[in-house]
Amino acid sequence: MPMMMLGVLLIVFSVAPQLASPFAQVSSIPAAPAASKTRHTWTSPTKQIFIEDTDAYGVIYNANYARCYERALSHVPREEELGGDEMILSSVEAQKYSGSPPLGGQYVIRGERLEASTNKEVWSVELTSPPVKDTPTMVHNSAQVTLSRGQPLKVVEVTSPTQAEGVHCQYKLIAYKDELDTCIPCDGVSQQEEKAEYYVSVRSAMCYFERARSTFLGGPDMLRKLQEEENLLYVVTSNSDCHVYFDTILVEGGIEGELEMKLRPGDEVTVQTMFSVRRRGMIVDCRHRLYLGDGPRRLLAKATITIMALNGTTRRPTSKLPQWLVDKFTA
Ligand SMILES: *[C@@H]1O[C@H](CO)[C@@H](O)[C@H](O)[C@H]1NC(C)=O
Which CATH class is domain 3-330? Predict the structure, then answer.
């Protein structure tokens, strides 16, 4: 759902800059911590939007910004011997979706490194229009992202937060090989001897979450019907805390055999989602968690994605929703 409709947000931005408040703050970037020696600003080479980057509306698909950031930051000059390509995007937080360059359009990633150590970098990043003299820069997307180097696998027990809150929907999926990435854990000494581990990338996790939200609402047919009969669109406006766990096995409810908890291509994974509704359904926070197997045991990824209902005619936020839709989120 939300996915396909980012184009709408773009339109909103170019023709109606006086938009209501939820949008006004969309391009702000989280404040940086106090200056440190590791601070570093950087702008990527100009990139172009290809068909593979877009959704049905010809704008960047919501999960693909993560890929843009990870690719761009792999080119940052680094002193260490281990190249930047070994750094894995492990979280995308405070991500604001303001719009998108169109298919064929160009963009750059601007980043400010807020923290850096051998195994971890934190960046404040923006996907913007390329710098053109005398033209204001347009910020399409912004986030705080973390790059990490895989460490030797460790098992950590965590308490499950999902039980008390109630799960609205649960979907099982197959994690296919092309949806998984691999990482060679690196303890700083014996990189070659370590075996690669599979993990779910931020992008794949966000695709699974997108699929779960859309399926919950009734799939593409229902989204089309919402648009045609109710004049409603849902768009993704933010992603507050997407984390993937690739060197830490977070286990809920008791540690069992570590081997069984390794992710492999073809494994079944489960997406659990809890919805909280604000402004009578105009804003829906979707808290997603991705597990290996069929229940809370090994946590692979999580994210809170916020979607917003827009009036199809005015492209403005609306809370004039059919009751069945509000009931669906709150039941
Ligand atoms: C959309 O906006 C139009 C024009 O203001 C209004 O007539 C209609 O009721 C609105 N629909 C929704 C679902 O907000």
Answer: alpha beta
* Distance in Å, CA 260 to ligand 1 centroid: 52
- Check residue 78 and give its pLDDT: 80
User: Pocket of ligand 1, candidates 8, 280, 318: which has the most ligand atoms within 8 Å of its Cβ, to mutate?
Assistant: 318
Residue closest by Cα to atom 7 of ligand 1: 313
Best residue for ligand 1 mutational test, from 228, 313, 321 (most atoms within 8 Å of Cβ): 313
pLDDT digits (tens, 9 = 90+) for 253-306: 666 666 678 899 999 999 999 999 999 899 999 999 999 987 767 889 999 999
Residue ranges of E strands in the chain = 40-43, 47-48, 88-97, 106-116, 120-128, 139-148, 154-158, 169-174, 180-183, 197-200, 232-244, 248-252, 268-278, 283-292, 298-311
